[in-house]
Amino acid sequence: MISEKLQLVLPSLPGSIHEVERFVEDICEEYNINNTYFGNILIAVTEAFENAVRHGNNNDPARNVTIDFTSKPEGLSFAISDEGIGFNINDVPDPTDINIEVEKIKGRGIFLIKTLADEVRFPESGTKIEILFKISSINSELAIDRINQLKEFSGQKERAATQNFSNNSAK
């Protein structure tokens, strides 16, 4: 089984994206993530990596991008950090705003990440993005609750079938 915490540190080179893809593929394979959710995770994490390389580290190969993976009770968490000066998320315009000229639209990558992930946070003054994908099979409390609901449902069905059998036998 894969460790609950992994880290990948890469230079700010566009070609490093292949290592990010392999990192995400290995994690998703280990946690049996299906194709649809795998696509969401892969696109969001690679987009965050590309943003860190391009905008955070200004394509400087001497600066690194760090990806920290953590398996949490609520799901799979990826934290992508750069060595840049950061940014204020509130200064990023909404790319869906129809009043912004097409040439001036920014923030599409962040919009994409927020759309694909379940939770997104920007701690540390914008040099880090934390992306959470809620995976019910990892969320033990949710899984236990679902199992109990299934048992309760099965018990109700079994009792109903037994009662119907008893009623039909008595006739």
CATH superfamily of the largest domain: Histidine kinase-like ATPase, C-terminal domain
**CATH topology tier name of the largest domain:** Heat Shock Protein 90
Sequence stretches where pLDDT stays below 50 over 5 or more residues: none
The geometry reads as elongated
The helix content, as a percent range, equals: 40-55%
Separation, N- and C-terminal Cα atoms? 57 Å
CATH class identity of the largest domain: Alpha Beta
- Pairing-aware structural class of the strands and helices? alpha+beta
E-strand count? 5
Along the chain, the helix and strand elements come as: EHHEEHEEH
Strand portion: 15-25%
Please summarize the sheet with the most strands.
5 strands, antiparallel
Mean pLDDT equals 82
Please work out how many helical segments DSSP would assign. 4
Number of domains: 2
Radius of gyration: 23 Å
CATH architecture assignment name of the largest domain: 2-Layer Sandwich
> Strand arrangement, largest sheet?
1-2-3-5-4
